[in-house]
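Agenda item 2: nicotinamide-adenine-dinucleotide complex prediction
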Amino acid sequence: MHLGLIGYGNIARTLIGMVVRENVPLSGATVLCRPGAADETRTRLAEDFPGRGVVVSETQALIARRPDLVVECAGHDGVRQHATAVLKAGIEAIIVSTGSLADQSLHDAVMQAARAGSTRFILPAGAIGGIDILSALQMSGIEAVTYTARKPPLAWKDTPAAALHDLDSLATETVLFSGNAREAATQYSKNANVAATLALAGLGFENTNVRLIADPAVRSNVHEYSVRASAADFTMRIEGKPSPDNPKTSVATVYSVAREIFNRCREQAI
Ligand SMILES: NC(=O)c1ccc[n+]([C@@H]2O[C@H](COP(=O)([O-])OP(=O)(O)OC[C@H]3O[C@@H](n4cnc5c(N)ncnc54)[C@H](O)[C@@H]3O)[C@@H](O)[C@H]2O)c1
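Presented output:
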C-alpha cells in the first residue's frame, strides 16, 4: 500500500515510526507539507523512512502519485486546503482533524467531494473510544451527550485561554469554556477534536455539551463523557498520555489512526 500523509508533525512521524517498527508492508509514503517546509520535511522523512518516502508541497502533486489512502494530520487548514481535491480524485482519506468539520460549509464540501469521487472519508475515534455504541444509539434516540476535557494548564497554550489566564502559574482547576461543540471547535480549534468527534457520532454540534478545563492536578489529557439514550446510558473516561512532541495530542490518537492503516495493509495482503 502507498500511503499519503498531509502534514509531517508529531502524528505523522510517530505513525511512520510504528510502520517501521512493526514492519508494516507499505510500498512507500508521499508527504504533502506546507510550501517552504519541503527541505526540512525531506530530511526528517529520509531519517524516519529511508528510501521509501517522497515529499511534495502541492495537493495535485500528492494526487498525481496516486496513494491508496491519504491521512490528514495537519490541522484544520490541512483539511480546508487539501481534503476535497483528494476525495474528488477518488482517493480515500482519514481526517484526523475532525474539529474542522464544525465548519458546516467545509463538512458539506467534504461530503460532496467524497460522493463526486465515489470514495469515502473516515473519521477515526482518535483520542477516545466508545464511538461505536454512541453512533449505534442514534437509532434508539439520544437524549444528552456531555463531554468534559481536562488537561494540564500548559496544554491550553496557543488557545483563547492564554489571553484570559496565566497558564504558567494556574494553581486551581479552572473552567475555560462551557458551551456547545460547535462553539468549542470554533474557539478552541486545536483542543476540540474530541468534542467534534462526539458531535459527529452522536447528537450533532449544537446539542453536544462541552466543558474544557485546565487542571494543574492532572498529568494526562482526561476525556470524560456521558451519554443518556433510550437503549443505554454510559460514561467513558480515558486518560490519554500526552505526546512528547505535542502535549495537545494524546498518543492514543496515533494508535487509533495506525489501526486504520494497518488493517487496510493487512486486507490488501490477504
Ligand atoms: N481526532 C482526534 O482525537 C485528534 C487528536 C489530536 C490531534 N488531532 C488533530 O491532528 C492534527 C495533527 O496533530 P499533530 O500532533 O501531528 O500536530 P503537529 O503540529 O505536531 O503537526 C502538524 C503538521 O502539519 C503541518 N501542516 C500544518 N498545516 C498544513 C497544511 N495546510 N498543509 C500541509 N501541512 C500542514 C505542520 O507544518 C506540521 O508539520 C492536530 O492539528 C489536530 O487537529 C486530532
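Discussion summary: Residues 131-248 form a domain with the Dihydrodipicolinate Reductase; domain 2 fold (CATH 3.30.360.10).
Owner for follow-up: CH.
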